[in-house]
């Protein structure tokens, strides 16, 4: 592999994806922080080019299929946030935990299926390193009326 090339970013390209710019914080926090060999991302909204493509509650204004795709976008934004503090996505030893929040209509109970969008993306991009523990939680409302929010915790290869 040539200098500067990232195997993870090459895999993203193979999947027809590019790593976006880090989504700027909406309030007083950082998009990601590193503690030892771990990186913790803030909750990532499904922002594309600085805006939400869809707003509303899953099971009402937003379909489950749309929300699953939005969760995938959240995971891509989380990878960008990880890279911003890790320097290189090839340093990911494994994804440890994914926590997802789904702004849900009162009778919607398919939160785990929505979060599969994020989990499947991480698996497709990182292979076995993308296998993780996960929580999928239904909530009344999310910032900016986003349908989905995802946070990711990763362990980095210790460089010594």
Query: Can you tell me the number of structural domains?
Result: 1
CATH architecture: 2-Layer Sandwich
CATH class: Alpha Beta
Mean pLDDT, rounded to whole units? 94
What's the CATH superfamily, by name?
Answer: RutC-like
Shape: globular
Write a concise synopsis of the structure shown.
This protein has 160 residues and is an alpha+beta fold. 29% of the residues lie in helices and 22% in strands.
Can you give a write-up of this model?
The protein contains three helices and five strands; from the N terminus they run H-E-E-H-E-H-E-E. Strand 1 (32-35) and strand 2 (38-41) form a beta hairpin. The mean pLDDT is 94. 38% of the residues are buried. The protein has helices at residues 7-14, 64-86, 111-126; strands at 32-35, 38-41, 92-103, 133-139, 148-156. The chain has one domain (7-156): 60s Ribosomal Protein L30, Chain: A, CATH 3.30.1330.40. The protein has a five-stranded mixed beta sheet with strand order 1-2-5-3-4, with helices on one face. It starts with 6 loop residues before the first helix and ends with a strand. Helix 2 packs across helix 3. The protein is globular. With 160 residues, the chain is of the alpha+beta class.
């Amino acid at each position: 592999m040539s200098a500067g090339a990232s195997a993870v970013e090459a895999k993203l390209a193979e999947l027809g994806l590019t790593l976006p710019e880090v989504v700027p914080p909406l309030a007083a926090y950082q998009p990601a922080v590193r503690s030892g060999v771990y990186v913790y991302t803030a909750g990532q909204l499904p922002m594309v080019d600085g805006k939400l493509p869809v707003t509303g509650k899953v099971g009402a204004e937003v379909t489950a299929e749309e929300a699953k795709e939005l969760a995938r976008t959240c995971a891509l934004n989380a990878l960008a946030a990880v890279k911003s503090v890790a320097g290189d996505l090839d340093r990911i030893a494994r994804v440890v935990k994914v926590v997802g929040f789904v702004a849900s209509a009162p009778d919607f109970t398919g939160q785990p299926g929505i979060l599969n969008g994020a989990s499947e993306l991480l698996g497709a991009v990182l292979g076995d390193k993308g296998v993780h523990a996960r929580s999928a939680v239904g909530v009344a409302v999310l910032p900016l009326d986003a349908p989905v929010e995802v946070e990711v915790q990763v362990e980095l290869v210790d460089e010594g």
